[in-house]
What we know:
Blueprint: H1 6-18, H2 21-24, E1 30-31, E2 42-52, E3 60-71, H3 77-90, E4 100-114, E5 121-133
Parallel strand pairs: 1-2
Antiparallel strand pairs: 2-3, 3-5, 4-5
Amino acid sequence: MTFLGSQSLWQAITDKLIGDSILMGQISGIYDPAPEGQTLPYLTIGEGIMRDWSAKDFTGQEHLIDIHIWSGNRGAGQIRSLADLVANLLTGQNLVLTGHQLVELKFIFLENFFDGDGEVRHGILRFRARTIQTV
């Protein structure tokens, strides 16, 4: 039994994204973390916050998950396009988790900006997931 659903959720999200040929045809990969010098664009599934979401009759968790999009294009269009693909693939999906059930997966926000060097554009998609432990 796994008490925390985060690893299973992260794996299900990664599997869903990797399984989409349209997305994978537009990026060099999905990493955690990306190898040094990786060809742009690519995604990383990064930071997350998890907190208790239990009630009297179930053990649950709420997860905030950040998916980062990295692009070498100066314009913001590639980030927006990839963000739209990712959001469509994940929002409202019933992903299969080990030891947990996904109750909800919702898009929260997209932030699109230049990284510190001014050469790489960086998008951050945040999702909220709620899971319950299934035993």
